[in-house]
């Protein structure tokens, strides 16, 4: 029965590992409930086969009982496909196997002391799980988004390891001497390989952060240049209007002299309207944010999108102005793209921001497509390499301890952010 207990424990542990490597397309509650139910069913199947056929057959067919259902769950829940999905499963199997091999080796070296086995499982499970949650999982999920090649090669190495420790080296670590020596040795080699992968993942994250910084600088420069061009154009128009002011005043004076005051007033009113049309609108005092609003609202209006904006921001912001500008630029760009799929008469963007007591943002636009939300309440991208703007919102909120909410209600897609 001790063997069955270990197998059942490893089954529950393995499903937990799969869940830790998963970036689900569905809600957290639905994902966890489904995985819990599947774990119970798999453990029941393992217990039944063990009672009927014994330990040898159970170990032989165990991959069919546990790993194939795990792969099917990943196919249903993971937002990734192809080699990245296979890598998620193989990574979960690897870390579960490392725990089993480490505990089995300690058990064998202690003279098969059951308490050493229990303590080894507890220590290794706690340490590796903490490592996955705190360090590897955030790094891994970011790498899944940013690394677009090389996954097949990593999967090949892990698949070779999988075949070696499960099929080519018979026996159970801690029970059979040859397996107790060979399998942990192979696991030690694969640990070195995975350490290199972690270094690769870290490099990928640093490159992504560098690209983000470059994007931030480019966006700031572009937005400020756009703002400067708008101000320059407005100044040129005002300069021209001011040059013509003498002629307009002379014409208005002549109309008044002739007693046609109504015509004089209409003439002056028309001149005033022309000036107002070319006056640069100032949306807020922070210059980069003001440039972003001016640029994207101008783009929206050029596309026939009606813009309703009420913006009140303080001079001092609780976050870096450039990073907040990136969030707003991504959100406005997504809103413009969503509007372009609608008839011209339905296109709208509503933007409301208040700065007291904290910054509260609501950005909304009409949406005629179905939107799916993942376990983090983020909209799931419908196409490959999309959804990075949404991820930037999530990363910004995590960094500055802000709260975000995406929802789709009554045909309107809304982003709410409290900072």
Give an overview of the whole structure.
The protein is of the alpha+beta class. The protein folds into two domains: 210 residues, no CATH class; 137 residues, 2-Layer Sandwich (Heat Shock Protein 90). Helices cover 70% and strands 8% of the residues. A five-stranded mixed β-sheet has the order 1-2-3-5-4, covered by helices on one side. It is elongated, with a radius of gyration of 31 Å. The model has no long low-confidence stretch (mean pLDDT 80).
Uncertain regions: pLDDT < 50 for 5+ in a row? none
Order of helices and strands: HHHHHHHHHEHEEHEE
Would you report the number of β strands?
5
Side by side, the strands of the main sheet go 1-2-3-5-4
Radius of gyration from CA coordinates = 31 Å
Number of helices: 11
Largest sheet: 5 strands, mixed
Number of domains: 2
Q: Provide the helix percentage.
A: 55-70%
Strand content: 5-15%
**Mean pLDDT across all residues, rounded?**
80
Classify the oligomer: single chain
Summarize the structure.
This protein is an alpha+beta fold. 70% of the residues lie in helices and 8% in strands.
Structural topology:
Layout: H1 2-20, H2 28-53, H3 55-77, H4 83-109, H5 114-146, H6 151-168, H7 177-257, H8 261-277, H9 287-302, E1 306-311, H10 321-339, E2 348-354, E3 360-366, H11 388-400, E4 403-409, E5 412-418
Helix pairs in contact: 1-2, 1-3, 1-4, 2-3, 3-4, 4-5, 4-6, 4-7, 5-7, 6-7, 7-8, 7-9, 7-10, 9-10, 10-11
